Amino acid sequence: MTETKTTETRLKRIGRVLRQAVNGEEQSFTTGSIDRAIVLLSIPMILEMAMESLFAVVDAFFVARIGIEAVATVGLTESVLTLVYSIAIGLSAAATAMVARRIGEGDREAAARAGAQVIVIALVMSALIAIPGYFFAEDILRMMARDQSVADIGTKFTRLMLTANLPILLLWMLNGIFRGAGDASTAMRALWISNGVNIILDPLLIFGIGPFPEMGLLGAGIATTIGRSIGVMYQLWNLFEVGKIVKIRLQYLQPQWNTIGRLLRLAAGSTGQYLIASASWIFMISILGQISKEVTAGYTIAIRIIVFTILPSWGMANAAATLVGQNLGAGHPDRAEKSAWRAAYFNMLFMAFVSIVYLLGASFFIQLFTVEPEALRAGSMALRIMAVGYV
Q1: Cα angle 128-131-135, degrees, rounded to a multiple of 5
Q2: pLDDT tens digit string along 250-301?
Q3: Interatomic CA distance for residues 348 and 320, integer angstroms
Q4: What is the Cα–Cα distance from 379 to 350, expressed in whole angstroms?
Q5: CA-CA distances (angstroms) from residue 51 to 59, 198, 303?
Q6: Residues 6 or more apart in contact with residue 133 via CB below 8 angstroms
Q7: Helices marked H in the chain — which ranges?
Q8: Residue 282 and residue 299: Cα distance in Å, rounded?
Q9: 230 vs 78: CA distance, rounded Å
Q10: What does DSSP assign to residue 235?
């Protein structure tokens, strides 16, 4: 009887922690159990990234129904878009670090001012990417693909994705503000809304279901842009109107060059790291693009499957970044270090499990998207090789 009551008490305690994590109840992460803090932050962040991962897989599934050329186009375009993602992820990490530090110090206004400068940077970066993206989209595809049919069907998609890059930048960078403030649940909801709309619109615009026109690959790009834009509007509403932890005012959007400089310096390491990875991906997929569209498609599918599991692990890493920043701001460096090591340990266990699953079931997962022999062979090989890298 005593053991039963103890078990029930533990289950109730776990349930209470899970509800607090998803509901986004305001917490102090500078005191108390580190493992509990990791759970409270990582659950919404993992759910946030899981939704992004689900979209990546669902989008690949629908695009694969169009044809191998469409999948190859998405892969080539995404390799270029990783440059945008590198900037967004680096600045998101910088926003998380700076906002978390200010929150740990108890200065919410300074956190809000830093968040406003993130928006300023995003606007400038977006323009610098959009202008060449609009004019050189076709040239980029023709340079990277041996099969010119890829450029013929994909130019409009690539031009749209490069030109409408602002929602991509803002979606990641604004979520960095929420994570730094410890408001992981709002970041989670933003991506859920964004990708939920995207998943609903994808088949409607790609295949022309009901009153919607059949737009093929361009429909996938429009669905993505609309979904991300709605997610960004939700983020901005929370930052400018709700302001649960961080409330940005319009006057904060005036450029503060010292803060912008600090953000760029903080972002330099992460951005540089991801730019190197992005450059290697562009180089890799350019080589594959010269082999065949089938090989490019197989590799693209493998990447989408890998993303399905690697993004949730980023969620746990983001939780660690928030804990480290807030504890450093509160003057607890030992607790900050311990938080990082505990989060890394949990992440290691998760990635080891994922590696085993992909090593054993690579062909099964690729077959869910395509049965084209060359794409299946290339995708299965790529998935196994990447899985070994996670070990």
Answers
A1: 145
A2: 999 999 999 999 999 988 887 887 788 777 777 877 887 778 888 888 888 8
A3: 13
A4: 23
A5: 12, 11, 16
A6: 158, 159, 161, 162, 163, 165
A7: 2-23, 34-66, 68-104, 108-144, 148-163, 166-180, 184-207, 217-237, 257-291, 293-329, 333-367, 373-390
A8: 12
A9: 21
A10: H
pLDDT band at 370 (very low <50, low <70, confident <90, very high): confident
**What CA–CA distance (Å, rounded) separates 179 from 22?**
13
Q: How far apart are CA 40 and CA 391, in angstroms?
A: 27
- Copy the structure tokens of residue 317: 């890493």
Return d(Cα 306, Cα 299) in angstroms, integer.
11
Whose tokens are 């932050």? That residue is: 41
Token pair for 130: 């959009």
Give the CA distances from residue 171 to residues 78, 168, 194, 325, in Å, rounded to whole numbers and listed in that order: 17, 5, 9, 21
How far is the CA of 281 from the CAs of 49, 189, 195, 347, 377, in angstroms?
21, 30, 24, 24, 19
Q: Who contacts 266 (Cβ-Cβ below 8 Å, separation ≥6)?
A: 93, 94, 97, 98
Look up the pTM and report it: 0.74
What is the phi-psi region of residue 322: left when phi exceeds 0, alpha when psi lies from -120 to 50, beta otherwise? Answer: alpha
Whether the CB-CB separation of 112 and 95 falls below 8 Å is answered with: no
Half-sphere exposure of 249 (CA within 13 A, CB side): 5
**Could you say which DSSP state residue 212 is in?**
S
Residue 76: closest CA among 302, 284, 220, 372:
284
Q: Could you report the per-residue pLDDT of 109-152, keeping only the tens digit for each?
A: 999 999 999 999 999 989 998 999 899 888 877 877 666 766 77
